[in-house]
Amino acid sequence: MSVTTNRSFSFTDKVRAHLEILDPVTWISVFPCLAGGVMASGSMRPTLHDYLLLLSIFLMFGPLGTGFSQSINDLFDLELDRVNEPTRPIPSGRLTKKEALLNSVVVCLMALAIGVFLWLYIGGIRGLIILVSIASGLFVAYIYSAPPLKLKKNIITSAPAVGFSYSFITWFSANALFSEIRPEVYWLSVLNFFMAVALIILNDFKSAEGDREGGLKSLTVMIGAKNTFLVSFIIIDLVFISFATLEFIWGFYHLVFLMLGGLVLNIVLQIKLYKDPKSGVSFMQNAVDDGFGNAIGQSDVAEHNAYLRFQIANNILFLSNNLFAAGAIGMKYMNA
């Protein structure tokens, strides 16, 4: 039921609503990949010039690019939000549909403007990579939520779309910001893509009933929760194994042991979650409640909380290895 009222809202209320529809807690999801891409270049200098370039790409993919994906999603999910999330900016009446559309258009154009600026400023293939990345990311964000394609309705299209937008293009763009694309970055972008796909697949198990009623073809609806766990865990573990293999090939032997140790810990967590989808990995609940809750969200749904607990643990293990590897790659090229 809609909670829209006829009351007028102050300028401050409007500003807050415009910020809320961009969903700031989601911006952080692209930052580790951007940081990894920059570190792997080994070419960023501690100067105001380079810090401003770094800030520009963080703004382009974070508040603007990711913000656009969230605002456009709210526009096309309005009828669902009237029932499920009536306090969101549009169904609550704090923003009209026209104001929300304007919000989406403005942040989209701002993201594209930064992309065009970086393309012209950096030039060559590197600049083109950045422009094509943000343009394709914005396009995928639109068709993810908008009919007729609405990629989010089918896990076969939704998971790759998220992996592409949040993990794949961000590695390439951030690396291109300061150097030619390092050969190792091709591999890291692919590994991060598959990790994002695995987590999106796993995320679906918490909302299987709602997906089934809404006609969404999530993997859990198609093959059941337990099989969805197995598919997701297999992808995650293969990513860890592939990462460790690449680190060995690259000569980062100390990181191989760190990655394999993370794999063992992750398998232990996976077994706990598989056995108990509601209470598994319960020792991480304090991290959800007090540590990372504001960044990743909280939930009253037991299955969702279990997923959030696993997500925190998995991301700590995987992203820390990402940054260590990116740093080692960057040091290699700094010393070349």
UniProtKB/TrEMBL annotation:
It holds the Pfam family UbiA. Its main location: membrane. It is found in: Membrane. InterPro entries: Chl_synth, Prenyltransferase_related, UbiA_prenyltransferase, UbiA_sf. It is a multi-pass membrane protein. This is Bacteriochlorophyll c synthase. The chain crosses the membrane at residues 51-68, 100-122, 128-146, 158-179, 185-202, 223-244, 250-269. The keyword ATP-binding does not apply. One of its GO terms (biological process) is chlorophyll biosynthetic process. Signal peptide: none annotated.
